[in-house]
C-alpha cells in the first residue's frame, strides 16, 4: 500500500477541476443539477499542476476531475463517469438514469460513446504527442467520425434531450463534447440532432452555471 | 427515426463479437461468469464485416460488441461497459459490483481507467490511422503510460483480484487489456500487481472459456 495523500477534510464536497476540462465539466453539471453545494479546487493543466506527486497520488493518470466527498479524509474518487454513477447512487433525487435496465443501457451507451469513442482521442495528452502541426487534421478526422456515429445513435433515442424528454447522464457528456467540437473548428451544424439538444440544454440554469467561463479558475479575459 | 434492422429473435441472447476484440471479450466474461448461455454471431473486423450498412444500423461506430437480449426483436444494446452494467442489473446473482457506493465507484474507476484511458488509444481504427510504421512506438508509449497509472490505482484497491478478494467488473477489463499488452510486446512483468491478478484470474474456468482462442470464430491455426 502507498501512503495516502492527506486530504484536508471539508464540510462540502470538493471537485478537483480545470475550468476547460470536459471531464470535470460533466461532474460539475451533475453537482449543479442535483443542487449539491461544492468547492472547486483548481488544478491548472496548462501549468502542469496535474503532474505533481501530490496530485498524482490522488489521480495516477494526472487527469481531472477528482471528487472528495464532504467530511471525508479521502481517498478522493476519480474518473468522471464513475463519479457520476456515485453521485446518482448517493443522491437519487433528480436521477440521471431512467429506471428500467434497457433504457439505462441506452443512456449509458450514449455516455460511453462520448467518453470512450470520442473524447479520449482528442484529449490533451494525445494531442501533445501528435504535435501542433498535425492536431487539426487529427481532431477533424476523429471528431467528425465520432459525431456522425453519435448522431445516428441519437436518431433512435432523442426526444427533447439525448434520451427522451428528461435530462439524463448522456446530456452531461454531450454539452462539453459539443463545446470541444466548436473549439476544434468542427462545423457542428452538420449534426442537427446534437445541435438542437445542445441548444435546449443551454437554456437550463444548472447548465449555464456549469459553463467553463463561469468557473473560478477561468482566466478573466475569457469570461 | 431510422428503420430498425430486422434482428431475428432468438431464444438465447446473442453476442455480436470478434474473437480478438478486447471489448467483446469483456461481455463474454460477464456472460460466462453469470452462467448465461448465449450464441455468438461473429463479425469479422479484418474482413470489415463491421462496416456493412446492416451492422452499422446496429452499432453506428462499427464496433463490437453488440448484445441482443433473448427473445428480443432489438435494437441490440451497444458499448461494452453499458452492456456489463445491464447484465449486472438484470442478472444480479454473482454481482460484478460491490454493494456500497464508494466501493462501486472505486471498481468503476478501474473499469473506466482501462476503458477510456488505455484501450481506445490502441484500438484498431486509431492504429490504422497512425500507420504500421509508427504503431509500435505509439502503443509502447501509451500502453506503458496507462499501465503504470493503473498499477498505482491497483496498489490501493487490489486484494486477490483488482478490488479486494472477489471478482468484479474491473477484472473483466483487466484480462483482455493485459493480453493486448502482450500482443503489443509490452514487458508486462514491469507491472507486478496486474501480472499477479491476471495469473489468478486465468485459473478460473469462466475466464478460460472466454479466451479468444476458445471462440468459434478463432482461426484454427491460432487455437
From TrEMBL, chains A, B:
GO biological process terms, alphabetically, are: glutathione metabolic process; L-phenylalanine catabolic process
Membrane-spanning residues:
none
Q: Which InterPro entries match?
A: Glutathione-S-Trfase_C-like, Glutathione-S-Trfase_C_sf, Glutathione_S-Trfase, Glutathione_S-Trfase_N, GST_C, GST_Zeta, GST_Zeta_C, Thioredoxin-like_sf
One annotated Gene Ontology cellular component of this protein = mitochondrion
Report the residue ranges that make up the GST N-terminal domain in this protein: 11-95
GO MF term list: glutathione transferase activity; maleylacetoacetate isomerase activity
Q: Where is the GST C-terminal domain?
A: 100-220
Among Pfam families, the record links this protein to: GST_C_3, GST_N_3
Q: Which domain of life is it from?
A: Eukaryota
The record's PANTHER family line, in alphabetical order, gives:
MALEYLACETOACETATE ISOMERASE
UniProt cross-references to NCBIfam families, sorted A to Z? maiA
Of which family is this protein a member?
Belongs to the GST superfamily. Zeta family.
Q: Please report the name of this protein according to its UniProt entry.
A: Glutathione S-transferase zeta-1
Q: Which organism is it from?
A: Linnemannia exigua
Point out the gene that encodes the protein.
GSTZ1_1
